[in-house]
Amino acid sequence: MINIGLIGCGYWGMNYARVFSELRESRLAAVCDADSKRLFEVNRRYPGTATLNHYQDLLTNPEIDALVISTPATNHYAVAKECLEAGKPILVEKPLCLEAGEADRLVEIAEQKQTILMVGHTFLYNPAVHKLKEYVDRDDFGPVYYLQAARTHLGLVRNDVNAMWDLAPHDVSIFNYLTGETPQWVSVAGSRFLSHDREDFVFATLGYSNGVLGHIHASWIDSNKVRTIVVVGGNKRVVFDDINPLEKIRVFEKGLSITGEVDSYGEFQLQLRDGDIISPKVETSEPLKNQCKHFLECVETGAKPFSDGRNGAEVVRVMQAMQASVAKQGHPVEVK
User: Fold this and answer.
1) Mean pLDDT, 10 residues at a time, over the chain (336 residues)?
2) What are the residues whose beta carbons fall under 8 Å from the beta carbon of 14, sequence distance 6 or more?
3) CB atoms within 10 A of CB 224
4) Are 109 and 99 in contact (CB under 8 A)?
5) Maximum Cα–Cα distance for the chain, whole Å?
6) Residue by residue, what is the 3-state secondary structure of 43-105?
């Protein structure tokens, strides 16, 4: 049984509290938050869980085996750094932090302390995303032409980061997983309608090798809630719709290619392939629970997490370039 200490029990932190209290492999031993009202709610739901206001008390507690950090993103670096320096295995909600240099420092500390640093890129633990990857990697999918993501809703506006930092890390991590690489450059434009401090929607373009492009639409102000990923290849198109409870994945066996033959006018001929639309079976399981189980396994065995610190740092590196592009009104920025 692994004793978990949870730092931060806001909207998403309460989801972590629920999952770790349900898993047989773990015990929600303690929850820390500065808001006493949130701690009162924890006491009501989980009467056997200790509550406290200062997370530093968890760092010196030998009964706490691992920590989960679900604070505002602006606090991730400082809190994660203290936890790692105390030698505690940690799971940090995405994004790992807001600056690539700080992300690299956290990775370095975790390696020095020989402890676990895992990042909560929850969609990487979604069975439908793994099924999407399975189809994209097949030889009959053909070359990847482009990827497109939409992540929109109305509300749940955060006061620590903009809509891009709130929503796009999911899609950046998925794009990197599907392509097996990090984009070389980004171009992002956004606007501020709800506040003068941060963008509430963005349109982002990510440039990968071989001319492959990714496009992300992230918004807090769209009344239509959308959670989709589309990958268009030479022979097929695959759609992941996280909102659809029956058909998470749809495969369109259609494509267009040049035959290589030249007609009498010296022009290449195009060949259209029209096939079936397939909805493959996808395992039903909760991605957050899958992620938390994986964290517990890594703490138990010392194994490298699937979404480890380096994976999280790469996403931060892309996001930082995206923020620089927003500041330059969409001017392309290299991902270093």
Assistant:
1) 96 95 96 93 94 93 96 96 98 97 98 98 98 96 96 90 96 97 97 90 96 97 96 95 94 72 55 76 95 98 97 98 96 96
2) 38, 41, 42
3) 10
4) no
5) 81
6) HHHCCCCEEECCCHHHHCCCCCCEEEECCCHHHHHHHHHHHHHCCCCEEEECCCCCCHHHHHH
